[in-house]
């Protein structure tokens, strides 16, 4: 891809050209918990890579749209290979209400508060995509057995913010918690941000200026050194709530823009129209806090777009990866997109990972040159085009034959790779297979009947490459109340998509 003429300054920021300053290092240890004057997390992304191996993971598990009349719950899973409970759910915390649709989660405090010794990472925020509640879960007293700390009701958010359908939660250096929204109280599109007090978790109001919400919302990431935040957009909740209708795409009801916000003034300063960028979902700046660039995954058009600050001080965007659609028979449309639903970056900003939920593959790209990502690893982990399924591939620009169904420890994997999380050292990648209950039900009915799974991939961090761990399987089809849909993954000590460095 041709290098934009306006991008000379930003392009010079190599993925490997930065190191933490000497005063950021922790003598004798990389763990913030051993630094009495430090707050939660790590002083830099590279220090975080030296952190301890993950031993447990938290996953929201969903029963909405499954036919099981039970509340969603937070599962704690043991992922320590030395543990006798390896690959087992060791604790379940049910929520007090039905049909919440737990989705993404975040922390009350993370590495953006590293300089504040009064802060600690003890509360996990659980925004509910469809009920608009926010659950605050205490993981500090016993990380292996979390407890419900507080319930923030939807009516409180509606009344104080005029917002609803909460999604992404990030902690702020101020000690506050900020949560993006997809709509207003009636399910119309409204991309605003709910601000919570970081101690009491009371709703303080909106982060954005009054009347300044974006038309649609979804994910966001901020980069204070460049006084910027960028948010994405899915669609109004009333559009996607009950499933996907291709006519809504033709009607322009799905997102295709990035919104650039002034971090200090709390207002939109630029809206970027994405070419080949339908439904921009997960957005990630490079972890290097000096970097003025990052990537966003556009689900429906199956592209990865790189956004960057240009020489004029404004922001631009360019397509750097295109996953070609497959011509198919036996599916809802004659062409099947990959549907990029989650992306993340390794903490050293060397590798980009993303999942194609419909095609069924997980990919690794070397982004040492962010303008020219290079494919270094690919695995098929289920998906809609496996042999023996209802879909026949008629024309494929990438594969010579349809992939085999995936069976791990005797369990056939239904659905495709969806939410992904990387170990701090970058050597292990964890994936789950559920996207959103109504879309799961529409595209992968077997996922509803059989439950989702959690898998683990071994990563070659030297040359690049992905290899399935055949001995790792967490089967949420065998949960006590019936098959569940496990979603996003969080480690107690922070991870590649929860922590932002200042």
TrEMBL record:
Belongs to the selenium-binding protein family. InterPro entries: Se-bd. It catalyses: methanethiol + O2 + H2O = hydrogen sulfide + formaldehyde + H2O2 + H(+). Pfam families: SBP56. Catalyzes the oxidation of methanethiol, an organosulfur compound known to be produced in substantial amounts by gut bacteria. Selenium-binding protein which may be involved in the sensing of reactive xenobiotics in the cytoplasm. May be involved in intra-Golgi protein transport. Interacts with USP33. This is Methanethiol oxidase. Pathway: Organosulfur degradation. Its EC number is 1.8.3.4. It is a peripheral membrane protein. Keywords: Acetylation, Cytoplasm, Membrane, Nucleus, Oxidoreductase, Protein transport, Selenium, Transport. Residues 7-32 have a biased composition (Polar residues). It is found in: Nucleus; Cytoplasm, Cytosol; Membrane. PANTHER family: METHANETHIOL OXIDASE. Residues 1-32 are annotated as: Disordered.
